[in-house]
Write a structure and sequence with these properties.
The protein has a single domain, classed as Sandwich (Jelly Rolls), CATH 2.60.120. It has about 210 residues and is an all-beta fold. Strands 1, 2, 4, 5, 7, 12, 13, 14 and 16 form a nine-stranded antiparallel β-sheet that branches. A seven-stranded antiparallel β-sheet has the order 3-6-15-8-9-10-11, with no helix packed on it. The longest helix has 6 residues. The radius of gyration is 16 Å and the shape is globular. A hairpin with a 2-residue loop joins strand 10 and strand 11.
Length: about 210
């Protein structure tokens, strides 16, 4: 496992989005229920609404890891994205992520308490960089896994504020010589602040490296 140091190359690398295999903005989902296409691993998520916008929301307590699975099982050459919203309470902050390859697979995780964003594989942090999270504002996350060759898979992620253009460059990138396992995409939340975490505009797409 190695962190790519060629930042300029990362900025220029392109991907071609293919078929969208899962997508929802929850606008047609009943409030107060968990849509049937989601499977909870932990926690009682439900659709909520504010100012005419619907989203899915994690529990606000107890402090635990809450995970939802969605979409079909995939291995690689896929991208998952979502908007995420959380708030802070004093010096307590939520932790949240999007992931691929199941609950024990790869995650792009924002950890405001440590002021960082990282690529995780299961419970292991593979690489992280400083990140300035702003509470009370929607944030986009994108994670993708692409096959480079028979022995190498590239995992990379980016985060950017809602209302701004998606950056071409990737915030984090690693290469793995172990093939990823088949698994469904996930959203992950840990409400350390005692307030729920919201997810919206969730999408899972095939990609062509």
């Amino acid at each position: 496992m190695a962190l790519s140091l060629a930042a300029s190359l990362l900025a220029c690398e392109s991907r071609v989005l293919g078929e969208t295999v899962f997508q929802t903005d929850f606008q047609n989902s009943p409030v107060g229920k968990l849509p049937a296409e989601f499977t909870p691993v932990e926690g009682n998520f439900a659709v909520r609404e504010q100012d005419g916008n619907r989203f899915i929301e994690s529990p606000d307590a107890p402090v635990d890891s809450y995970i939802l699975l969605f979409g079909p099982p995939t291995i690689g050459n896929v991208s998952v994205s979502a908007r995420v919203f959380g708030t802070a309470k004093g010096r307590r902050y939520p932790t949240f992520a999007v992931g691929l390859n199941g609950a024990a697979g790869y995650r792009l995780q924002v950890s405001p308490g440590r002021k960082e964003v990282g690529l995780h594989k299961g419970d292991e942090v593979k690489v992280s960089v400083p990140f300035d999270w702003k509470p009370g504002e929607w944030l986009w996350l994108r994670l993708e896994i692409a096959k480079v060759n028979d022995n190498t898979w590239r995992v990379r992620g980016k985060a950017w504020p809602h209302g701004t253009n998606e950056p071409r460059s990737w915030t984090l990138s690693i290469e793995d010589n172990t093939p990823p396992r088949s698994g469904r995409a996930v959203v992950f939340a840990c409400p350390i602040a005692g307030t729920p975490v919201r997810f919206d505009d969730i999408r899972l797409e095939k990609i062509e490296p």
